[in-house]
Amino acid sequence: MTHPNRVRMSKLTLGLLAVLATAPVFAQSTSAGVAGRITSADGQPVAGAVVTITHSESGTVSRATTGDDGRYNARGLRVGGPYTITISKDGGGTATQDGVYLSLDQVGNVDAQLGQVATLDAVQAVASASLKTFNADNKGLSTNLSRVEMDRMPSPDRSIQNIVRADPRIVITDRDRGAFSAAGQNFRYNSITIDTVNAGDPFGLNDNGLPTKGTPISQDAIESYNISTANFDVATRRGVGAWVNAVTKSGTNDFHGSVYYTYQNADDMIGKNEADRKWTGFTKDSTIGATLGGPIIKDKLFFFASYEESTKTSPGAIWGPQGSGSTNEVIGLSQAQVDAISAAASAKGLTPGSSSSANADIEAKRGLIKFDWNINDFHRASFRISRTEELEPIIVQGNTSRLNLSSNWYVFDKTSTSYALSLYDDWTENFSTEMSIGYSDFKQTRGPLTGGYQPEVTVRTSGADTGPAVVMGTEFSSQANDLAVKSWNAYFAGSWFIGDHVVKAGLDYQSDELYNLFLQNYNGSYEFNSIADFQNGTYRRYRVNVPAPGYSLGNVAAEFKMKQYGFFLQDTWQVNDKLSVQYGVRYDIPKIDTDPTFNPCFAAAPGTTGDLGPCGLRRNTGTANVNSAFGGYGFSNQGTIDGNGAIQPRFSFNYAFDTERFTQLRGGAGVFISNTPAVWVANPYSNNGVAVASYDINRRRVATDPAFSSDPYNQNLPGSLTKPGLGSTQMNVSVVDPDFDIPKVAKYTLGLDHQLPWWDMVVSAEYQYLDTLKGISYQNINLGARPACCRTAV
């Protein structure tokens, strides 16, 4: 039936009937689309009508022609608008729609009835809530935010976390860390892309799911966001939580720019928590920046650039010795004792630092430049370069029995550079493609804030194994900690428009070259039970991890390539005016280059014995071959996810009821996999059980062997020990089960939308169900009677 409230028509008898609605039709792209059906005055389809789609601000033109069924489709359009859409047919009249705005990853529907020249009141059409909801392509669950909508949102952190909370299915689980969960899934299962390039954490360590503490690209450089938790388009790649996709701004025929400054004072602008305590994450947060965009060649070539700097001021250390007046005080530790420990440390060549020194402010710089080229009416290209630099100092806070001096604090020094090239092509009236190629280079080093690299030293003042203590020197996990990830991304999708069908096929590719060095206690970690013991060099405990004989730090680091290939095929079928269905399949397969270092002890059959007894207990006689095989677990430690492919069928539908007011039923079902966090894949490389020698000398104030060394790169290793069991070498092994499958989740959704009679309001009820088909399981296999593989007692 005809809905009189669908659009606000002009007084002309025959005019344009426009339905501007959005839905996730193609996924994680950088463009938008428009489609519709052209009919004559008597309701018959009009074939051969020319549809001209013009981006008003840049002069970008795209064209489409209706088929025998009167339908047309256009893809690869600029996000946003305004657009002017003109439909014409020789002898059949002309219809024009102005003020059309198109959303990222979505298709706007513009239907027309040709007769005489007519014009629609575009503003009313664009503003209608009903027109944004009721659409045959609206099958899943998504939230779309334009630049105008983002400008209206409160965004105190200017981060992606401020944006995603606009979707009711996403919850910010920790504001300080920036972690967010979608539909109850692990934060590592979210997919975050900007201009199709992966903008998420490339390794999987950060709780906020991003490579940096702050936003990877300035929020003032973003044109639009699409946030989805149930997108059944097969082009939706690797993610089971939320898909957060953004596209950056582009230049136009007019010069536009901005200069901005933001400021937040934690004392005055952030409330207290349930315990009536003030926020202590930072004291002040400020950002200054500018943007500029415009034409290089009018209607042809454009640029957009942005740059900003931000500083988040740290409140500093909150712990101090008793009587210092600090926010928190270490009970039983005096300033005089701290001074004595610092003096002893300086005498040994260490730089202890203090409880309040060193700059701990988070500082970031973000720059971006983008070029858009209208090659002709059928081909368009864009190229973007961005770079982010961030220094994130970490204050290692103490507790009631421990004071950490500034030499024990550390800093994350991060740089992230990315490039993105996108091509949009209309090859024929019925075939168009979108292709993108991206490259990103992420580096993160972790080291001390003051004093350079040193062993970590803990000095207690009680003379016992417990009591007040001062900790100084390089934090034990920061002594050998470097991360570098180089990534290539590629995406290609072709769409064929065949009558009532839109057939889409394509592939995507991701290649990560990873290097992760993580060796705790590489510079040594010492514990002393008294100031006198520290002065005399008599430690209570000494731990150090070094490359085993025959190995180097290069063998200790996880260094490998992980490639992921995705292939997809899909058909969207407009069965009739009321029912639209979409069905397709996706196949993903990972490939891993370079296996972890082989551990023969682990791979040996259970119970195997050698010249020195069963695996797990070998006396140090000076003749042991630490790499010889002694009973293990019977399978190799070199297993990876290589070749573990996953087939993912997907189906969705939309049905419009024949009611007085718009009512539609929509839903879908499909299988999804996550973009495998690299940190999980890397563990078997770092923890292979043979490349690291780990020493733990645990003594009770006896003569020390080896002697204390303040030189971080020349730590003394155990020599001849007079008592068995005083020192040991323990090598951990992380493995992938030979029967491991890629984690899979099935998603099912069902939604009902109905237009209310008041103020164009729409009420929606949605149900979403997730079924974990294959989940991650961690297990400590070193349990029970089986001995610990690759353990040496000395």
Give a verbal description of the structure:
The chain contains 9 helices and 44 strands. The chain is mostly beta strands. A 15-stranded antiparallel β-sheet has the order 18-19-20-23-24-26-27-30-31-34-35-38-39-42-43. β26 and β27 form a beta hairpin. The protein is elongated.
Summarize the structure.
With 794 residues, the chain is mostly beta strands. 7% of the residues lie in helices and 45% in strands.
C-alpha Rg, in Å?
31 Å
Low-confidence stretches: 1-26, 116-128, 611-629, 720-728, 783-794
Structural class: mainly beta
Distance between the termini: 87 Å
Mean pLDDT: 82
How much strand? over 45%
User: How many strands appear in the DSSP assignment?
Assistant: 44
Number of DSSP helical runs:
9
